[in-house]
């Protein structure tokens, strides 16, 4: 952009600009109220303007304060800034006309990337300089009390999913807008009649709650950044659409509960809280403390897992299943608290009279206030009833004694856990007057003698329930590289922080389908860059499948036997695809234009039991098939019949039952052992088969093909029977790129086709061998422990002062476990920090749930008992650095059942689902065996408890 000449006759002088902007700013900010508009301006341009108007003078900021600039005395005649250029704040491809508008980069930070200007200031600068684009944002009430003014720099970005059509759209909308406004805008985007649309909170890609209170704000409904919203087409006239689409409207198998009492979740990320100039520019927020119960009855839902996944409020009267409300990015705190309160020793201790052990005088403690606040919170969580608890009093105490956890930003759950364990220990330390002790060096004495001496010295100063339960002891050996001096100490530990190996690649499984009947579906397992994008995945699959020059791949995510979304944007991050997702890649012609995609949805009969009555209904199953349809030609019902015949032809069984006019020589690949037709892990085998009547569209007209039970959903959302009137033209919807066709698989039809190949769509990554060639050993928890215990030199910052050399040396250090606690807390070091970057390791760690055997890792060989541990709780972290969400998996020992604690929402989970790459902090408890020794050497208040495997 061309720069403007300095001080032309129509331009104010720098001094005039400075004084005008200062005065306008002070007046505007003093009167700021909800609903006012502020504008983002790039920090780079603002800094140029400041230097321009402050040359040779003191810098005057927007708040009226000034700072002397002695270094600026020589700055004269600085060029007037060119036009305002906010382009570095936005994504280039966005436009104001799109539903999402002009979208900001997700990681902008106020004061570094941009500043916020009151409307009057922006208007004045824009009149002087012009430029843009204009980035206006509203002032809203924020904070837990909803009384703090904040600029909503990042309005909610929501992903709208239209079902059953499968269309998607992203929109930006203020969290202070109503559900009614979201409903209106969704209908506008998809060109729908408002009376035929339901809006669902689609948290976790499940029907979480029906959003029917049109006057309620999205903030009060606890809708979060980047959340999925389901826009569901319903038929209130009870026409053919109701029966035809009932299975899709049930959303497949996403919801299994028969009666579900749902708690609106607190989906945490980063919040933008504080005053109007305190927006941190982070892309996620969670500051709603509103959490309500909504009962939804979903008829006809079958349960197919161990627990039925019914809402916890429909269960019996078991205690310990009470959630914690998210006060605004407090999921890090909630997950850690739930693990601690479900530690049996702590639950018993704090539910009894622990007040007599509070150390009111300990200068290292919090005068008992932290222990009292934690004890009170624990009792509420273990009380009968299921109403979620707001941990506000505890949060206040936490902020008072640990200011680093104040406010409503996201924090590290493990750092909080470390503070809590240490703080509770000091508040409950039974030692009122700590004696002075000095530990001696080993000097060749037996390790057992030295270890006991160190432990006795430690217990003489530190004796609490925390020490009884959580503290162990390790042996630390330092060797001087110069004089070989060996120093042995025995130090206590509260938890073990284990390193993880970083991985740069990721293995993904994708099933490839053809639309021309040339091959059976085949599973590919390929390796892609972990931080790669969809274009890397498509390229890897294309290479593995030897994709022809006239073919391309259409990638889709499959959920509940439907196409959840097409991954058409090549820049989609692969990190957005989870290991338990299911992907399908469809080979389609490359050079065909003006096409729509026919989605063939498979359904089969399933028996439903409700209120002692049994009915038969059609439910989606298997994997949809996709084929392009040209919009330039007239498509008849018979044409769609022929297309579907072609798509299904590879699965036609050897003997075409009931088709005497079709010879075996015209029948495609016979059904064989599925294991023999599944491809190797390295590549797809393109199974070329004979030309046939079914595959050759040109000759198929000469043979009478059987009519398939097909139904098409037309643009009016009514179902059309495609088994009659084959010459009738089909009107294609002008508003959707997808054409939905159901095929109902009866038992008779399954006799003619081997539908096995449609049924078992593999996960993107299953923790276990996908195939022999692709098999990679997952990182074991034992391997992490061995890396922690391995001898290695100290880093230069931590060099050791050798008492013999009298100098600091880079000694080698070796750790050994010596004494293990009753409860072993293991922290997986997923977050890595360096001077140049911070990142999170998504490495999957295969940790034992039962029989975690540490016997061979104990250096104290006089302890011959087996050291077995069992997992009972863990925290999970989902997302990347500085954001994301924490949950906890906890085993209720009385029930021998695992539950997922997601803030205020609690749901049962299967034990096999406990393991994931999100596991962050693991809680193990000792399994008492016949030859096990008692505790860790301290006199424990829980020694009488017998631990047994359930």
How would you describe the overall organization of this protein?
By secondary structure, this protein is α+β, with helices and mostly antiparallel strands. The protein contains 18 helices and 44 strands. The radius of gyration is 33 Å and the shape is globular.
Outline the fold blueprint.
Elements: H1 14-30, E1 37-42, H2 43-53, E2 59-60, E3 66-67, E4 84-85, E5 114-118, H3 119-129, E6 131-132, E7 136-142, E8 148-151, E9 156-163, E10 167-173, H4 179-190, E11 197-201, E12 209-210, E13 228-233, H5 240-249, E14 259-263, E15 293-297, H6 331-341, H7 344-351, H8 369-382, H9 392-401, H10 413-427, H11 447-461, H12 465-470, E16 472-479, E17 486-493, E18 496-499, E19 505-514, E20 522-529, H13 534-544, E21 551-559, E22 562-566, E23 582-589, E24 595-610, E25 613-620, E26 625-630, H14 637-648, H15 674-677, E27 710-713, E28 719-721, E29 738-745, H16 747-750, H17 756-759, E30 779-780, H18 781-789, E31 792-793, E32 800-802, E33 807-809, E34 812-819, E35 823-829, E36 831-833, E37 838-840, E38 845-846, E39 852-853, E40 868-878, E41 885-892, E42 897-902, E43 905-909, E44 919-926
Parallel strand pairs: 4-6, 9-13, 18-35, 19-23, 24-29, 30-38
Antiparallel strand pairs: 1-5, 1-7, 2-3, 7-8, 9-10, 11-12, 11-13, 14-15, 16-17, 16-34, 19-20, 21-22, 21-23, 24-25, 24-26, 27-28, 27-29, 31-34, 32-33, 35-44, 36-37, 39-40, 40-41, 40-44, 41-42, 42-43
Helix pairs in contact: 1-3, 6-10, 8-9, 8-10
């Amino acid at each position: 952009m061309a720069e403007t000449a300095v001080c032309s006759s129509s331009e104010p002088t720098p001094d005039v600009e400075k004084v005008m902007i200062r005065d306008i700013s002070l007046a505007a900010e003093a009167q700021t109220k909800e609903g006012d508009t502020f504008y983002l301006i790039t920090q780079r341009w603002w800094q140029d303007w400041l230097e321009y108007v402050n040359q040779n003078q003191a810098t005057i900021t927007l708040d009226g304060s000034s700072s002397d600039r002695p270094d600026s005395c020589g700055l004269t005649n600085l060029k007037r800034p060119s036009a305002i250029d906010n382009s570095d704040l936005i994504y280039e491809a966005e436009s104001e006309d799109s539903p999402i508008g002009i979208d900001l980069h997700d990681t902008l930070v106020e004061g570094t990337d941009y500043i916020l200007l009151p409307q009057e200031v922006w208007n004045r600068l824009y009149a002087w300089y012009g430029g843009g684009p204009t980035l206006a944002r509203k002032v809203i009430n924020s904070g837990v009390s909803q009384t703090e003014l904040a600029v909503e720099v990042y309005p909610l970005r929501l992903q709208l999913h239209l079902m059953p059509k499968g269309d998607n759209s992203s929109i930006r909308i203020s969290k202070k807008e109503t559900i009614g406004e979201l409903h209106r805008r969704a209908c506008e985007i998809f060109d729908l009649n408002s009376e035929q649309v339901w809006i669902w909170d689609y948290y976790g890609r499940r029907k979480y709650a029906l959003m029917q209170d049109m006057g309620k704000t999205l903030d009060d409904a606890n809708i979060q950044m980047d959340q999925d919203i389901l826009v569901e087409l319903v038929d209130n006239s009870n026409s053919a659409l109701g029966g035809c689409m009932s299975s899709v409207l049930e959303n497949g198998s996403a919801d299994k509960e028969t009666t579900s009492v749902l708690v609106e979740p607190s989906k945490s990320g980063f919040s933008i809280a504080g005053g109007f100039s305190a927006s941190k520019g982070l892309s996620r927020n969670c500051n709603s403390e509103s959490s309500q119960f909504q009962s939804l009855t979903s008829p006809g839902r079958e349960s197919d897992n161990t627990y039925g996944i019914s809402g916890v409020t429909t269960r019996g009267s078991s205690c310990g299943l009470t959630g914690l409300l998210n006060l605004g990015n407090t999921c890090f705190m909630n997950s850690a608290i739930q693990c601690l309160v479900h530690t049996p020793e702590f639950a018993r201790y704090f539910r009894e009279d622990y007040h007599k052990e509070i150390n009111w005088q300990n200068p290292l403690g919090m005068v008992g206030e932290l222990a009292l606040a934690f004890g009170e919170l624990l009792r509420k969580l273990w009380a009968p009833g299921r109403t979620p608890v707001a941990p506000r009093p505890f949060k206040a105490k936490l902020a008072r004694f640990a200011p680093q956890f104040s406010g409503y930003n996201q924090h590290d759950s493990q750092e909080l856990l470390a503070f809590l364990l240490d703080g509770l220990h000091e508040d409950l330390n039974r030692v009122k007057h700590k004696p002075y002790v000095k530990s001696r060096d080993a000097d060749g004495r037996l390790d057992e003698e030295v270890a006991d001496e160190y432990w006795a010295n430690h217990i003489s100063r530190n004796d609490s329930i925390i020490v009884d339960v959580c503290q162990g002891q390790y042996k630390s050996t330092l060797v001087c590289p110069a004089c070989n001096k060996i120093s042995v100490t025995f130090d206590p530990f509260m938890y073990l922080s284990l390193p993880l190996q970083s991985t740069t690649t990721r293995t993904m499984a994708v099933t490839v389908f053809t639309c021309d009947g040339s091959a059976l579906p085949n599973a590919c397992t390929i390796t892609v860059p972990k931080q790669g994008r969809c274009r890397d995945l498509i390229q890897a699959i294309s290479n593995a499948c030897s994709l022809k020059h006239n073919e391309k791949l259409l990638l889709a995510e499959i959920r509940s036997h439907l196409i959840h979304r097409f991954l058409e944007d090549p820049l989609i991050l692969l990190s957005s695809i989870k290991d338990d997702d299911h992907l399908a890649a469809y080979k389609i012609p490359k050079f065909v234009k003006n096409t729509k995609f026919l989605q063939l949805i498979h359904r089969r009969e399933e028996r439903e039991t409700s209120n002692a009555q049994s009915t038969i209904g059609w439910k989606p199953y298997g994997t949809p098939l996709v084929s392009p349809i040209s919009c330039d030609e007239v498509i008849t019902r018979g044409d769609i019949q022929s297309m579907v015949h072609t798509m299904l032809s590879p699965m036609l069984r050897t003997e075409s039952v009931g088709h005497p006019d079709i010879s075996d020589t015209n029948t495609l690949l016979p059904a064989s052992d599925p294991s023999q037709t599944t491809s190797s892990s390295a590549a797809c085998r393109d199974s070329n088969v004979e030309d046939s009547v079914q595959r050759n569209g040109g000759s198929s007209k000469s043979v009478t093909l059987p009519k398939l039970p097909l139904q098409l959903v037309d643009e009016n959302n009514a179902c059309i029977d495609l088994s009659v009137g084959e010459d009738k033209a089909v009107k294609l919807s002008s508003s959707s790129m997808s054409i939905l066709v159901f095929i109902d698989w009866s038992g008779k039809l399954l006799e003619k086709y081997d539908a096995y190949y449609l049924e078992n769509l593999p996960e993107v990554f299953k923790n276990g061998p996908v195939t022999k060639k692709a098999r990679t050993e997952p990182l074991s928890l034992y391997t992490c422990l061995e890396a922690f215990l391995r001898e290695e030199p100290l880093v230069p910052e931590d060099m050791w002062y050798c008492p013999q050399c009298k100098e600091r040396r880079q000694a080698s250090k070796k750790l050994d476990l010596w004494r293990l606690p009753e409860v072993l807390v293991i922290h997986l070091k997923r977050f890595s920090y360096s001077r140049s970057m911070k990142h999170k390791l998504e490495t999957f760690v295969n940790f034992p749930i039962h029989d975690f055997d540490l016997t061979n890792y104990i250096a104290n060989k006089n302890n011959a008992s087996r050291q077995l541990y069992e997992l009972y709780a863990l925290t999970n972290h989902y997302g990347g650095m500085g954001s994301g969400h924490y949950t906890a998996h906890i085993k209720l020992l009385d029930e021998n059942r695992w539950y997922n604690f997601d803030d205020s929402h609690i749901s049962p989970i299967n034990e096999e689902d406990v393991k994931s790459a999100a596991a962050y902090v693991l809680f193990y408890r000792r399994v008492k065996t016949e030859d096990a020794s008692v505790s860790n050497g301290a006199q424990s208040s829980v020694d009488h408890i017998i631990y047994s495997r359930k």
